[in-house]
Amino acid sequence: MDFIEELTWRGMIHTVMPGTDELLKKGMTTAYLGIDPTADSLHIGHLCGVMMLRHFQRCGHKPLALIGGATGMIGDPSGKSAERNLLDEATLRHNQEAIRKQLSRFLDFDSDAPNKAEMVNNYDWTKDVTFLDFAREIGKHITVNYMMAKDSVQKRLNGEARDGLSFTEFTYQLLQGFDFLTLYTQKDCKLQLGGSDQWGNITTGTELIRRKVGGEAYALTCPLITKPDGTKFGKTESGNVWLDPRYTSPYKFYQFWVNVSDEEAEKYLKIFTSLTKEEIRKLTEEHSENPGARPMQKKLAEEVTVMVHGREEYEKAVEASQILFSNKAEDALKSLDEKTLLEIMEGVPAFNVSKEELQSGIPLLDFLAVKTQIFPSKGEARKMTQQGGVSLNKKKVTDPNQTVGVSELLNDKYILVQKGKKNYFLVICE
After folding, report:
1. How far apart (Å, rounded) are the C-alpha atoms in residues 374 and 383?
2. Phi, psi of 416 (to 5 degrees)
3. Would you call 395 helix, strand, or coil by DSSP?
4. Which of 102, 183, 246, 318 could form a disulfide with 189 if both were Cys (CB 3.0 to 4.6 A apart)?
5. Strand ranges (DSSP E) for 4-61?
């Protein structure tokens, strides 16, 4: 596969430096993408860059994932309106290991292939460099005028940040340039990949390589993926969708993708999956014939969830998603963990009932109309029960004289009540 051609039809190129295509056509090329380990999980804002590395490796080239142990201690001003919190080395090392584990789902780190992926940490070559050495060997090659002209610097100086731009942040582009220079000299890395907000930092690196060692290096950036309101997916803004199930469950992760708009689904299929152009074309045609079935969203959610969490978690997420809409979900409901159950029931009216009272059993009509206010009266509860309109944990109840006991509890704490076809209530028993 041709890397530039592949990224172009997928809409994954924002800017590319002249000569990059020619470089890649000469043979196997090494490129790197930087990730600052400011959290112990990637989120979907990182996924476009990670998919670039994935496509790069699939095209026969060698990807390097650079963990910014050093630059992560400083913070990058690009696209940010405030300086990041600084992290200690132990936290950063922990984050690095967690991120490597996630990346291994996308990249081949372990085979004997000449283009197997590698992970590097800029802390390893930065930690022993003194300030005087850095000023003499790196700083003298890039002028302040050149650094000041960068968009990321100008935006901060022109009022995006209340506190202006710290010297620490101002030096970030030099540190990132030092990374590129180091990888260029040590690993023959001639290309840096990144988001479009990184263009200024990346080109500082290509300029440093040219001035310091007379070398030619190149840059390629992808568009930033934004939220529906236009803001960037970042670690510090609200609304992140994380790859780590501790922060975003596979169910919620699946729900994010399956609920995107038609326009987003077509765009995201190209960016976040490895489906071919022909496969995506067929999906869009199928979708246009029956948009209500949402085939694009379903396939997108399947591809990305399987890639990040595996097939088993994907199937659990699909099953959980169908619980509210299926009359045969009794067993699936019982197997749900508490976190997923609460996520499915988010926004559903809730009532509290003493678990102690359940020990001896509560008459059904009392449970529905006295202990909770699911029904305004016992008479109404009786009538709907006899008509088959009441379910406990997705199982129809038809005997208004039965009792509700602890055997009904889900996760030893919850009972899901369904009234009619669409009205759900969660009873919390503690």
Report:
1. 14
2. -100, 120
3. strand
4. 183
5. 15-16, 30-35
pLDDT in tens, 306-353: 999 999 999 989 988 888 777 667 888 888 888 888 888 888 899 999
Q: Which residue has the higher pLDDT, 173 or 8?
A: 8
- pLDDT at residue 143 greater than cutoff 90: no
The answer to whether 418 touches 345, Cβ cutoff 8 Å, is: no
pLDDT digits (tens, 9 = 90+) for 374-418: 999 999 999 999 999 999 999 999 999 999 999 999 999 999 999
| Nearest alpha-carbon partner for 273 in 44, 42, 33 | 44
Residue 77, CA atoms < 13 Å, CB-side half-sphere = 28
Write down the pTM of the prediction: 0.83
Q: Which residues of 298-324 are buried (b: 16+ CB within 10 A; e: fewer)?
A: bbbbbbbbbbbbeeebbebbbbbbebb
CB atoms within 10 A of CB 158: 8
User: Quick one: DSSP state of residue 406?
Assistant: G
Q: Please, are residues 35 and 46 in contact by the beta-carbon 8 Å criterion?
A: yes
- State the pLDDT at residue 237: 43
Closest CA to 66 of 147, 232, 187, 167: 187
Residue 417, token pair as written in the block: 């009540």
Q: What are phi and psi of 340, to 5 degrees?
A: -70, -40
Terminal-residue alpha carbon distance, the chain: 59
Structural tokens at position 330: 């009794």
Rounded to 5 degrees, φ, ψ at 247 are -105, -35
Q: Specify the DSSP class assigned to residue 407.
A: G
Distances (CA, A) of 1 to 7, 24, 56, 187, 266: 10, 11, 9, 23, 22
Residues tagged active-site: 38, 43, 46, 80, 84, 176, 197, 232, 235-236
For 190, the enclosing helix (H) or strand (E) is strand 189-195
| Cα separation values, 361 from 209, 247, 367, 407, Å | 77, 37, 10, 10
Q: Where are the alpha helices (DSSP H) in 27-85?
A: 44-58
Query: For tokens 């080109």, what's the residue?
Result: 203
